[in-house]
Amino acid sequence: MESEEEERIPIAQRPEWSDVKPVPQDDGPCPVVPILYSDDFKETMDYFRAIYLSDERSPRSLSLTAEAIHFNAGNYTVWHFRRLILESLNADLQEELDFIGNVAKQNSKNYQIWHHRRWLAEKLGSDAVVTELEFTKKILSIDAKNYHAWSHRQWVLQTLGGWENELEYCHELLTDDIFNNSAWNQRYFVITRSPLLGGLDTMRDSEVDYTIDAILARPENESPWRYLRGLYKNDLKTWTNDLRVSSVCLKILSTKSRCIFALSTLLDLICQGFQPGPEFREAVNALQNAEAGPSTSSGLAESICSVLESMDPLRVNYWSWRKTQVPALNV
To answer: Residue-wise pLDDT tens for the chain (331 aa)?
Structure first.
């Protein structure tokens, strides 16, 4: 509604609604837990029921749905009827984008808003690409992990296009916050789905270098480690044999700090057949002496689990279980 709620004129006092008889909500003769609606909400919904039941698709009905949404932006019946009215009136959908943009300011995680937004974008087609990407960008600048905004953005890219600058957008987000796991997820989505980049096999080499730089900057950040593993999806042999992966593990281990993910990655590499050199044993032994005392383990994989038991107490039971799975690895 354009006016402030306290300036609202009751619908019953508006001349244009004098021909409509409101339909009260029917809760039955003995409602168990009646809801104490405000008078304005109750009146608005009573009139909405009247125009909904009569299927009145008019400008005043459209205006009334806006009032109903003002009181409850999650009412899917109101949103559904609003779409029917918009179609019947052949309304300006660009104006509707402005309307829903205002509603989203206070309801950015409302399912109905995003469904309505997608419906509008489908109607507008390629003309909506720039608008929708900018809209989601604005929402994500406020809440970088807004699932609805990310889901809508991915739908727009796959359905309407707009891939050209998406990888750069992901880079901008990661530059601002290297821990933004949603941005890492979107980056993976782009390199694997964009029709402009050639797919994972084409992008892997440059993405590995990009990810290793991120790991070296903040080795305690789990996201790039997971991303790195994802770059070798369905190709564990290449992951195991790529010296860049084992080398970044060794670099982090040599610092003797923030190395939980380097240890766990090295453990996974060994379990997949990687043959570590003596420098890996030296690095792990140094950590073990600092964390858990002198090594009593016969194999490197078992030693790594022992260090992780001490270094990562929240998952101590997991690392104890992993240790029981690797006694045959004599490396």
So the answer is: 444 456 889 999 999 999 999 999 888 887 788 788 899 999 999 999 999 999 999 999 999 999 999 999 999 999 999 999 999 999 999 999 999 999 999 889 999 999 999 999 999 999 999 999 999 999 999 999 999 999 999 999 999 999 999 999 999 999 999 999 999 999 999 999 999 999 999 999 999 999 999 999 999 999 999 999 999 998 999 999 999 999 999 999 999 899 999 999 999 999 999 999 999 999 999 998 876 556 555 689 999 999 999 999 999 999 999 999 886 655 5
Q: Is 109 a catalytic residue?
A: yes
Catalytic pick among 21, 42, 105, 109: 109
How many angstroms separate the CA atoms of 173 and 176, rounded?
5
Sign of CA dihedral 297, 302, 307, 309: negative
Q: Which residues, 6+ apart, have CB-to-CB distance to 323 below 8 Å? A: 302, 305, 306, 309
Please name which of 205, 200, 207, 135 lies closest in space to residue 170, comparing C-alpha atoms.
207
| 272 contacts: CB under 8 Å, gap ≥ 6 | 236, 239, 240
CB-based contacts of 67: which residues, under 8 Å, 6+ apart?
Answer: 1, 44
This prediction has a pTM of 0.89
**Nearest alpha carbon to residue 49 among 77, 16, 74:** 77
d(CA 133, CA 161): 10
CA distances from residue 297 to 287, 302, 313, 322 in whole angstroms, order as listed: 13, 6, 19, 14
- CA–CA distances in Å: residue 66 to residues 78, 224, 278: 9, 44, 70
Tokens 């045959």 label which residue?
328
